[in-house]
Design goal:
Order of helices and strands: HEHEEEEEEHEEEEE
Distance between the termini: 18 Å
Number of strands: 12
Shape: globular
Number of helices: 3
Radius of gyration: 16 Å
Strand order of the largest sheet: 1-8-9-10-11-12-2-3-4-5-6-7
Length: 207
């Protein structure tokens, strides 16, 4: 199961939404406030791990591909996703280098992103409160019952059409929905989210 390069980056950024205060009644909130929720949530999280279920709907296929796995994140620049068989894969993002391993086939791939797409740069930008919207993205946000939903759409649309992050009232990441320009759609549901567990380099080995 593959996710585009930009989709993986946006997913990695979405892990910052882990400690947002509980919302009130259903209401639309400003895009700036929505991004500030992500930023403020990230401030108190040094690392996290969670179990996931990924549902991948490929536009050219009728069958939906479903896989379970785990994700790990550690400041300032490490993100890893492991999917279990029958669609086993491991993806490691260290700053601006993506390493992929398909264990069943022995396939390995490494992609070097431009420096401005690295995790370290994005985390540095998130050190300060959000006072304006970044260039190149459209943002919508709302509180609805026991959830906060934040939608991010890159205006250039190089790979991802829309990224939607859904948070539970306790601030934990509940679901990420990625819609790509090629009409592929990925839904990643999170459970057993644990924050600040003391992850080390050994937790981010792809081999």
């Amino acid at each position: 199961m593959k996710i585009s390069r930009l989709a993986r980056i946006l997913l990695a950024l979405a892990v910052m939404a882990l400690a947002v205060p509980a919302p009130g009644q259903a209401a639309r909130i400003s895009p700036r406030e929505g991004l500030e929720l992500l930023r403020s949530a990230f401030a108190g999280v040094n690392d996290f791990t969670a179990e996931i279920t990924q549902e991948k709907q490929i536009a050219l296929m009728k069958k939906k591909l479903v896989a379970n796995g785990i994700v790990r994140f550690r400041k300032p620049d490490s993100f890893m996703m492991e999917l279990n068989p029958p669609h086993a894969s491991r993806v490691l993002l260290r700053d601006n280098v993506i390493s992929t391993l398909l264990p069943a086939d022995g396939v390995r791939q490494k992609i070097v992103l431009p420096p401005d797409e690295g995790l370290a740069r994005w985390f540095a930008l998130m050190e300060n409160p959000v006072t304006s919207l970044p260039d190149g993205v459209a943002v919508q946000a709302e509180r609805n019952g026991d959830a906060v939903t934040i939608s991010i759409a890159p205006s250039q649309g190089r790979g991802v059409k829309n990224l939607q992050v859904i948070l539970a009232t306790d601030g934990k990441l509940r679901r990420v929905i990625i819609e790509e320009q090629n009409r592929d759609r990925t839904v990643i549901s999170f459970r057993n989210v644990r924050r600040n567990v003391g992850l080390t380099d050994r937790d981010f080995r792809i081999e």
